[in-house]
Amino acid sequence: MGKEVILVTINGTDRPGVTAAITEILARNDAAILDIGQADIHNHLSLGILIQSEASDSGDIMKELLFRAYELDVNIRFTPIPESEYGEWVGMQGKNRYIVTILSRKLTAKQIASVSDIIAKQGMNIDAIKRLTGRIPLDEHARVPKASVEFSVRGTPRDKERMKADFMALSSELEMDISFQEDSMYRRMRRLICFDMDSTLIQTEVIDELATRAGVGDEVKRITEAAMRGELDFKESFRRRCALLRGLDVRVMREIAENLPITEGVDRLMYVLKKVGFKIAILSGGFTYFGEYLKRRYGIDYVYANELEVEDGRLTGNYVGEIVDGHRKAELLRLIAQVENVDIRQTVAVGDGANDLPMISIAGLGIAFHAKPKVKANAKQSISTIGLDGILYFLGYKDSYMEE
After folding, report:
1. Cα-Cα-Cα-Cα dihedral of 358, 361, 364, 369, to 10°?
2. Which residues contact residue 170 at a Cβ distance below 8 angstroms, ignoring those fewer than 6 apart?
3. Among 398, 199, 386, 395, which Cα is nearest to 278's?
4. How far, in Å, CA of 355 to CA of 345, rounded?
5. Which of 27, 59, 211, 398 is the most buried (most CB within 10 A)?
C-alpha cells in the first residue's frame, strides 16, 4: 500500500504533557515526523505535526490519537497530503526568506492588516508571526509604551523597491516603524554596532551646547542644521563652528558632560548589547571628550571623534588631527570590523544625520534613528516612534530573553 503523509492539527487549552502524549503515540507506531510547529496564545495551544507512516498503519494511528485527544480535552484534525503537494512544498525550501518587524508605541489591528496586505500584494507568504515585546496588561497605565511584532515571510517580492516605499508611506500614516530584512545567518550573528553620538546616543548637539556658553549659539546652530541636512560640506561647517568657540573655558565641558540628556532606551540597549557580547563603537563628528565620558559610563569599546585644541585652559578655535566626517565614519567601521574579525554583514550602524549615511549604507544593518527626512529616505531601516532600544527588536531579540 505504500506510505501516507498526514497533517495532524491539535487545538485546545494548553497544559503540560499534551505534546508529549501525542508524540508518544507517533513514536510507538514508528511514524516519521516531517515537520512540526507549536504556538501558545493565552494558554490556547495550536500544534501541527506533519507525519509519514505506512498506509496500513494510518488508521490505527489516527484512532489512537482521537482517543488520546478526547482524554486531553483537545480538538484534533487529520488532513491527508497528496505526494505532489508535499513535493511542491519541499521545493519551496531555500527560497528567499525575509523578516518584517514592526515597532510602535501601541499595536493596532490596522497596522497588522496593512503590513499583511502589502506582503500579500507582493505575492509573498507569511509563515509565522511572533510578538517580541512582553505581554500587554489591560490597564493602559501599566503598559510599557512600546510594541513589536515580527513576521517571517517567504518568497520573492514582485517589486522590492515598491514594497519598501509602501512600507515607508505606511510608517508615516500609522505612526510605526517597519524593518524589512533578509533572513540570513548574518542577521542572527551581528557582532559590532557603531553609533553616532550627537542626537543619537544623546538628545543634543554638543557643539550647540558649547556655542551657547560661548555666546554664539544661534550662529553655530544654523551651521549645524545646514550640515545635518546635507546642505553644507561637513568639514567646512566643522571648521567654521570650531572657530566660533575660541576663548571658551574648558571647564564648561565637564559640566555639559555630566548633564548630557541620554536618549530614551540607551541604558537598556547598552546593557543587553554588552550582555550578548557585542563590540560597541562611537563614531562621531562631535568631540572626543564627550565620547570618552559615554565610554566610561557604558563600557563602550571604541571612540573616534574630534579633538578640540586647548591652550591655557581655553579653546583655541582649532582642532587636532583628522576630522571625523561621513567618509571617515565608514572607513572606521570597516577598520574596526577587520580588527575584530567581523564580516561587514555582521555590523550595525546607527545615526541621524547626513554624515552618517556612508556608514549606514555599508553596514549589514543600517538604521536611521529619529533622522532627518533625507537620511530616513536613504537608509535601509529607520526608527522614529520609540527609543533607541527599538534596535533590539530589529536584531530579533524578545523581551523575555532580555529580562533573563
Report:
1. 90
2. 114, 115, 118, 176, 178
3. 395
4. 21
5. 211
Q: What are phi and psi of 200, to 5 degrees?
A: -125, -75
Cα three-residue angle 222-223-228, rounded to 5 degrees: 100
Answer whether 358's CB lies under 8 Å from 366's CB.
no
Spatial contact of 282 and 302, defined as CB atoms under 8 Å apart: yes
Question: In the block, which residue shows the cell 505506512?
Answer: 54
- List the one residue out of 36, 67, 148, 135 whose CA is nearest residue 100: 148
Per-residue pLDDT of the chain (404 residues; tens, 9 = 90+): 688 999 999 999 998 999 999 999 999 999 999 999 998 888 899 999 999 999 888 999 999 999 999 999 999 999 999 988 888 778 766 568 999 999 999 889 999 999 999 999 999 999 899 999 987 766 666 556 889 999 999 999 999 989 998 998 899 899 999 999 999 888 889 999 999 999 999 999 999 999 999 999 999 988 878 876 778 888 888 899 999 999 999 999 999 999 999 999 999 999 999 999 999 999 999 999 999 999 999 999 999 999 999 999 999 999 999 999 999 999 999 999 999 999 999 999 999 988 999 999 999 999 999 998 888 888 889 999 999 999 999 999 998 776 65
pTM here? 0.85
Q: How many other C-beta atoms are found inside a 10 Å radius of the C-beta of residue 75? A: 12
Q: Which amino acid is at 33?
A: I
Q: Is the dihedral of CA 89, 94, 96, 102 positive or negative?
A: positive
Cell of 177: 516603524
Listed residue (200, 223, 212, 189) closest to 351, CA to CA: 200
Neighbours of 141 (CB within 10 A): 5
Q: Which residues are catalytic?
A: 196, 198
Q: Which residues pair with 224 in a beta bridge?
A: none
